[in-house]
Write a structure and sequence with these properties.
The protein is built from ten helices and 14 strands. The protein is of the alpha/beta class and 329 residues long. Strands 3-2-1-4-5-6 form a six-stranded parallel beta sheet, with helices on both faces. Strands 7-10-11 form a three-stranded antiparallel beta sheet. A three-stranded antiparallel beta sheet has the order 12-13-14. Strand 13 and strand 14 form a beta hairpin. Helix 6 packs across helix 8. The chain binds ligand NAX. The site of ligand NAX has 28 residues, from helix 1.
Length: 329
């Protein structure tokens, strides 16, 4: 058996936590030969529920689950972490402005970034799911002194999966037939699901789905608004699909990407595609054979795409400016 890897998860007693822990413990993400330690982080009010979750983990008797720690202490929680899923955050309440939300959550992510720098493993990688996830990741990254910027990611994979399913349904194919779908920008209603470069069974989507009005209008809107549609239907926000997308993200980051394809995750911009350096922006990413990732270069950006990408990147700049006090110079 291999040495266990350590996975830290914040917000572990929440909806997404409940949908992700058991699948990680079962080997779905890191493989059936890889034991895992789970370090579960909650705030004080979440601890009783977390205790119940830990009891259920015990009751699964997972062969790969080596150790479970439940804590409110960040250094204990991130101790030795090879992977950190930052899921917990404060939801937006009625009457709360976006700037208030950015500020409240921003403070959480400064402390978590600092604790990751102090206590996680040298090879730690961090996936931020808690919203506003791009800017939370930006804050954590900038407060994790000594941890390279290329270890921080924010989740847009749920948006990619949603977009693929919409295109597949429209074309009457299976969602696995849809490739090269990039979500650009922010995980918010400004995100741009780029149908112009996506493919269905290797053919451009725009050749298979000739209804351009649908692609430019309803398709984009449906993907952008899908989170709200789930809340309306279910009375609660996406959880199982979000957990699934977080696991898809990590699987894509640790396994080489099939030739010619790419996936979406928000990373620290290196200036590619004219996007300001240092922002956490979703773009087309590939994982190389050596396990490192790269921004796919040369993806065509037409005028329609440029306008959409600029709009979502501008929103990220505004978010960055709203939390500038939380980003050390
Ligand atoms: P829940 O409210 O069910 O759970 C959140 C949990 O986090 C709670 O148990 C709470 O006690 C805990 N928590 C709060 N502050 C914490 C802190 N400082 N440290 C540790 N734990 C803390 O929310 P859930 O449905 O699980 O969603 C979690 C986050 O994911 C939310 O911010 C949500 O907006 C975000 N999402 C992000 C998505 C994405 O695609 N990036 C999609 C799904 C989801 O909306």
């Amino acid at each position: 058996m291999k040495e266990p890897i350590t996975v830290s998860i914040t917000g572990a007693a929440g909806q997404i936590g409940y949908a992700i822990l058991f699948r990680i413990a079962s080997g779905f993400v890191f493989g059936e030969e890889q034991p895992v330690n789970l370090r579960l982080i909650e705030i004080e009010p979440g601890l009783p529920a977390l205790k119940g979750v830990v009891m259920e983990l015990e009751d699964c008797a997972f062969p790969l689950l080596n150790e479970v720690v439940a804590t409110t202490d960040l250094d204990e929680g991130f101790k030795g972490a090879n992977w950190a899923f930052l899921i917990g955050s404060v939801p937006r309440k009625a009457g709360m402005e976006r700037a208030d939300l950015l500020g409240i959550n921003g403070k959480i992510f400064t402390g978590q970034g600092q604790a990751i720098a102090r206590s996680a493993s040298k090879d730690v990688r961090v996936l931020v799911v808690g919203n506003p996830c791009n800017t939370n990741a930006l804050i954590a990254m900038n407060n994790a002194e000594g941890v390279p910027n290329d270890r921080f990611f924010a989740m847009t994979r749920l948006d990619e999966n949603r977009a693929k399913s919409q295109l597949a349904a429209k074309a009457g194919v299976h969602n696995s037939d849809v490739t090269n779908l990039c979500i650009w920008g922010n995980h918010s209603a400004t995100q741009y699901p780029d149908f112009t470069n996506a493919k269905i069974k290797g053919r451009p989507v725009t050749e298979v789905i000739t209804d351009r009005d649908w692609l430019e209008g309803e398709f984009i809107k449906t993907v952008q608004q899908r989170g709200a549609a789930i809340i309306n239907a279910r009375g609660a926000s996406s959880a199982a699909s979000a957990a699934n997308a977080a696991m898809d993200t990590v699987k894509s980051l640790i396994n080489p990407t099939p030739e010619g394809d790419w996936y979406s995750v928000a990373v620290c911009s290196d200036g590619s595609y004219g996007i300001e350096k240092g922002l956490i922006v979703s773009m087309p990413i590939r994982t190389k054979d050596d396990g490192s990732w790269e921004v796919v270069q040369g993806v065509p950006v037409n005028d329609f795409s440029r306008e959409k990408i600029d709009a979502t990147v501008n929103e990220l700049k505004e978010e960055r400016d709203a939390v500038k006090d939380l980003i050390p110079a």
